[in-house]
């Protein structure tokens, strides 16, 4: 077979195999090969690498959408110097994602604007890049979804969906108080995920306020029991990044105050040996 005929067949193979990037790299790489600028092996490697790179970019983009990680924040854009009380190494360690393998619960606590959502999103993006399945939701959206599923007789399906991901990020615990029904639905989800998958929770409220947030002391205590077992607690006590230029305009009585110290461990109810959650002291 003549060389042009072979090239035509190679092109047809790449089209059939849905390898458009390799196809568009074919001619320029052929010219390099003919000019002896690369070996046959390097020629092949370049075509495959180009196709793989574009597929990886597409996979990450799709997974970020599925994870609902739409507001893309990264650790590279987080200014650690602005939060000197936050241990940068602890955040970088979290970004190594071993807590996901260990199915731990990470609590990011702190007043509004201190970067809790930013950090949760950034760790979520790292997890997606490394091929882990992630789902991001605010607590209010999560509970609205569970309540809707319950009304439609689909609660177990919804809970199964929310336990499938390696990492579930629940943002904004405590911004809005929940109805007792909502607290109960959340408990069912937490119970289903307990020791099965990792979570990141963000909150502007201390654990001592969970009774108030969830409108029920018994449910709050049962939630904390599960969510503080195998937990990492990171507290950010610094200033709001949003208000960094205008902090002086906020009236004194509305200024964010440090949260009460975590965690008060809830009553021991299940005779299991407990690991102390490691709290990060403010700097
Ligand atoms: P929180 O969830 O604690 O209320 P956010 O993470 O939403 O705060 O932060 C508010 C805004 O400020 C976001 O746009 C976030 O990207 C930005 N931000 C917060 N802290 C930092 C920081 N240390 N470096 C860079 N941007 C930050
Ligand atoms: Mg937030």
Record the SSE blueprint.
Blueprint (H helix, E strand, L loop, with lengths): L2 H14 L3 H15 L5 H27 L21 H7 L3 H4 L3 E5 L6 H14 L4 E5 H13 L3 H10 L2 E7 L6 H14 L4 E6 L6 H5 L2 H11 L3 E5 L42 E2 L4
Parallel strand pairs: 1-4, 1-5, 2-3, 3-4, 5-6
Helix pairs in contact: 2-3, 7-8, 7-9, 8-9, 9-11
Magnesium ion binds next to helix 6 and strand 3.
What does this structure look like?
Helix 2 packs antiparallel against helix 3, helix 7 packs across helix 9 (about 180-195) and helix 8 (about 155-165) crosses helix 9 (about 180-195). Strand 3, helix 9 and strand 4 form a beta-alpha-beta unit. This protein is of the alpha/beta class and about 280 residues long. The longest helix has 27 residues, at about 40-65. It folds into two domains: about 5-60, no CATH class; about 70-255, Rossmann fold (3-Layer(aba) Sandwich). The chain has a six-stranded parallel sheet. Residues about 265-283 have low confidence and may be disordered. The protein is elongated. The protein has eleven helices and six strands. Magnesium ion (MG) binds near residues 116, 117, 171, 172 and 202.
Can you give keywords for this protein?
283 residues; alpha/beta; Rossmann fold; six-stranded parallel β-sheet; 11 helices; 6 strands; 11% strand; disordered C terminus; binds adenosine-5'-diphosphate; binds magnesium ion
């Amino acid at each position: 077979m003549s060389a042009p005929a072979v090239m035509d067949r190679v092109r047809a193979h790449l089209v059939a195999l849905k390898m458009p990037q390799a196809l568009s790299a074919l001619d320029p790489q052929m010219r390099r090969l003919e000019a002896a600028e690369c070996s046959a092996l390097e020629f092949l490697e370049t075509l495959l690498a180009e196709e793989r790179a574009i597929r990886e970019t597409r996979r990450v983009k799709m997974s970020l959408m599925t994870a609902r990680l739409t507001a893309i924040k990264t650790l590279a854009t987080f200014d650690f110097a602005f939060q000197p009380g936050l241990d940068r190494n602890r955040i970088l360690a979290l970004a190594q994602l071993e807590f996901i393998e260990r199915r731990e619960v990470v609590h990011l606590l702190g007043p509004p604007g201190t970067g809790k959502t930013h950090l949760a999103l950034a760790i979520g993006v790292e997890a997606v890049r490394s091929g882990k399945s992630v789902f991001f939701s605010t607590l209010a959206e999560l509970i609205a979804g569970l309540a809707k599923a319950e009304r439609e007789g689909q609660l177990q399906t919804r809970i199964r969906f929310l336990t499938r991901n390696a990492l579930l990020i629940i943002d904004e615990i405590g911004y809005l108080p929940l109805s007792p029904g909502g607290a109960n639905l959340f408990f069912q989800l937490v119970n289903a995920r307990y020791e099965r998958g990792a979570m990141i929770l963000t909150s502007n409220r201390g654990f001592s306020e969970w009774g108030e947030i969830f409108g029920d002391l018994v449910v709050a205590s049962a939630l904390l029991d599960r969510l503080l077992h195998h937990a990492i607690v990171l507290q950010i006590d610094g200033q709001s990044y949003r208000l960094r230029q205008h902090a002086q305009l906020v009236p004194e009585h509305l200024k964010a105050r440090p949260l009460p110290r975590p965690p008060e461990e809830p009553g021991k109810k299940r005779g299991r040996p407990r690991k102390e959650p490691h709290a990060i002291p403010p700097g």
